[in-house]
Amino acid sequence: MELRTVGSVINVIVMAAYATVAIRTGYRRRKDHWSRGSWLGLGLALLAGFGLLGFMVFFSASVGESPSPWVGAAGSSTRVFWILITLAAMVGGVGLTAGTLTWFARGRPTTPFPLARRPARQPSHPAVSERPAVGFGPNQPNRAAEAVAAQVEHH
Known about the structure:
The chain is an all-alpha fold. The protein has a domain at 3-106. It has helices spanning 3-30, 36-62, 77-106, 143-154. Helix 2 runs antiparallel to helix 3 (77-106). The longest helix has 30 residues, at 77-106. The chain is flat and about 100 Å long. The N and C termini lie far apart (99 Å).
């Protein structure tokens, strides 16, 4: 086995260990405080990060030494474009995944995940649509309906 391959295996083991410890720590701290929405938000953020990393792995293989025709020839602007897209996916995927896991492991346990839906804030006064129209309360006669009924009877 080459030294490069051993280094890659060690990197993967270290990243997997970090992720495992972060997930375990964060879960133990938040399991009593978080709502279903917070857990779903965390899952979606991690899924997006891993999706970007998967996209990066796929395109880095596509842009390699024997690329597909749609990637472009070596040195072409099309190839440069795909390389930049691959680098952006790498930075975004690593940043999103590492940032999410770090926040999950170290953040305040009572803070909901930022992508989670928060319950709608209750207004201090009833909305206009919730107020009864003037003259149409439960004890008020409906004079408009009476006027329409009277017009129908005359015709």
